[in-house]
Amino acid sequence: MNIQDIKQDWISQFEKPLVITGPCSAESEKQVMDIAERLDKEYMQVFRAGIWKPRTKPGSFEGVGAIGLNWLKKVKDEYKIPIATEIANASHAKLALEFDVDYLWIGARSTVNPFTVQEIAEALRDTDKIVLVKNPVNPDLDLWIGALERLAAQGIKKLGVIHRGFSSHNKSKYRNNPQWQIALELKDRFPNIPLICDPSHITGRRDLIQEVAQQAFNLEYNGLMVETHCNPDEAWSDAKQQITPEELKKILVDITLRKKNDTSNDFSSKLNRYRGEIDELDNQLLGLLASRMEVAKKIGQLKKEHNVAIFQPDRWNVLKKLAMRNGERMGLSKEFLEYLLVAIHKESVDLQNQIMEDK
Questions:
Q1: Cβ atoms of 47 and 39 closer than 8 Å
Q2: Which of 30, 40, 233, 285 is most buried, most CB within 10 Å of its CB?
Q3: What contacts 187, CB < 8 A, 6 or more positions away?
């Protein structure tokens, strides 16, 4: 079964964008029920809670385990709201199905392992439940798509993806770098697959959730997964990124939803003009980059002739600092400059390395 051919009608049942919310971790039956009671069901349609919590280091709270499924089931029965939890292996998947969990998501640490995803897919074979796949920890689009393909191959037809950002050694204001272009490439290749943003894990900070949620809706995402807690500062896991249900409702009320298009003549005329300017500037940029790489090749040839190493850390640090300073003065973001400069430098080093290896 090709994932391009699967109609994802399940997402169309919601009049508003889909919002999946609840605590990072289920801590007690009372905590779970208190949060569920405080959700505004008009804006928040699915209740989530982590039952099993894969943690980076041993000794951290790793979830209450299967007992938490009883609490989730109670939420579903009393509040008539669908429930969701993360499954990290095949045994989790089977238990979640036994307790009639409606939405199952595969976390970033599981998506990164094709063997784990395959075992989960086989445990969920032909299920009618909705299965969501978080992006892998590392920025690997093929790995993300591969997880969807494994699920589809097992007859699972209700699929979606969750964008929770990617780990990076470069420090930024975010816990996980969004790298929006990766999620948007998946959306471009598979427009039928619903795309949900997880601003809690992208930001790692409650004060940035609204900003990232708005960015997601600017890019036509289908919904959000946001962590909420009745007392966020006392949460047993990821306290800094959780907010109250009331704070989440305020964010959702304030968010601006964008239209897919505007067919008015004024909009179309201006958009076409601006796009023409972008096309011309892109051609100029590509020409400048090509010229820069030609100079890099000449430097590579010179280094080869004089038996000098390709990578010169002192020169790279000076160049990078100067470009970062000039770029920020021009209004370019630090994150964008970092990404761009590293990409250009890597291409230059690769070209020079090819020259060094030529006999």
A1: yes
A2: 40
A3: 193, 195, 220
Q: Are 69 and 157 contained in the same domain?
A: yes
User: Containing domain of residue 13, as a range?
Assistant: 3-254
- The b-or-e profile of 195-218 (16+ CB within 10 A means b, else e) is bbbbbbbbbbbbebbbebbbebbe
Whole-angstrom distance, CA of residue 336 vs CA of residue 324: 10
Token digits for 354? 């090819």
Say whether both 160 and 289 belong to one domain. Answer: no
CA torsion 345-351-357-359 (nearest 10°) is: -150
Residues paired with residue 223 on neighbouring β-strands, in sequence order: 18, 196
Residue pLDDT, tens place only, 225-254:
999 999 999 999 999 999 999 999 999 999
Which tokens in the block code for residue 10?
Answer: 């399940």
What's the pTM value of the predicted model, to 2 decimals? 0.82
Tell whether 180 and 322 lie within a shared domain.
Answer: no
SS (H, E, C) 110-137: HHCCHHHHHHHHHHCCCCCCEEEEECCC
DSSP state of 176: S
DSSP bridge partners of 130: 103
Question: Are residues 157 and 200 part of one domain?
Answer: yes
pLDDT, tens only, 21-62:
999 999 999 999 999 999 999 999 999 999 997 766 676 777
Backbone φ, ψ for residue 48 (5° rounding): -120, 155
